[in-house]
Amino acid sequence: MKEEEQAYYEIKLRGGSMAKIPLKPGQTFDPKHRYIVTTNKFANGNKSLVIFHLLDEYCSNIKNSRKQWKKDRKPYRCTFTNPGKSQWQSSPINYNELDRHIKRTKRFKFSDFNFPNYSCDWLDLSVDMTMNFHLPSGKMGMVIQDFSLTQRFGIGIRPQLDREGHLISSFLPQLTMRVVNKRKKLIENSDKVLEIDWLFDFKDLTNDCISLIDIFLMQFYTKSKYAPERNWTFDEDKIGLKHGRRLMDKISWIRTITGNNLDIEPEIEALNTLRELRNHLNHFDPPSFCASVEEIVEWLNMTLRVATILYKMRKCVGAKMSEELMTFMVQPIVKFEPQSVFSYRVEQYKPNSGYNTSIWR
Fold first, then answer.
1. Per-residue pLDDT tens over the stretch 64-95
2. What's the structural domain count of the chain?
3. Could you tell me if 131 and 228 lie in one domain?
4. What totals of helices (H) and strands (E) does the chain contain, helices first?
């Protein structure tokens, strides 16, 4: 049973109570109340995008249309032959089984249905190694090396480590799951939404979301310059230098190099909002921040637009999907849940309250 206490109108200063006025007798307040809760809804049609990607990628031998897949309850065992000619067969699946699985688990893992686990080598392949020792000079030494950069990008960088440390060649898989897990943690700990550490964790989330797009585009530029796919055209005079560029300039590389149109118009407003929020929280200019929890909930849902952008970028460049990105895409929409005593709400007038009052206008 939830612990409840007398409800108060309360304002805090640096975590301590500045003003505290009790509400009417009998009105209670749950100190462990979660202000942000998950719903059973998914953003931007992402769930269907993931399901149909899987069916198109692995079950192309079954000639169902989109409409037929949604109606068909027959279990199928999809087959796949890898380049080495070894064969594999999935567990029984259909659209509705995949749909139920995602709704229940809020993730996708290849092993859940015995799908072969593969992704895009130049985006997702990661030599992720550590060593915890150092052998002094004069004794038999040991090093760990990463030759994957030459294989993936055709560049002559060969990271090598001979003592305690990290060696890693792609942040995308790990950072994608960090975004997923950070978002989950913020939701699960939303009883602490008014604490400064929660806000700093939210700041980290916005940073990591924009970093996912930046890392993708930087790796795409490197791949295009040194080891382009057959149908790509890299003209450095037209594309320009890699560094010191605005995010939207870098996004335009995709069309210039591949010739494919990246339609992210439905996501661009959310991307710009998160990018500006990231910049504000990083540089703290202007020196103020003000936001209602209702606004923060909107931003948490905007992060799912980033997942859609990453999906569309991979489609445009012909890159395979990773299970990490598919898991990001099927994170649920969240909603604001006020304390019961404050459940009667009036709509926030944003020109005169919240975030818009704390930025340059």
1. 899 999 999 999 988 777 666 667 788 999 99
2. 3
3. no
4. 13, 12
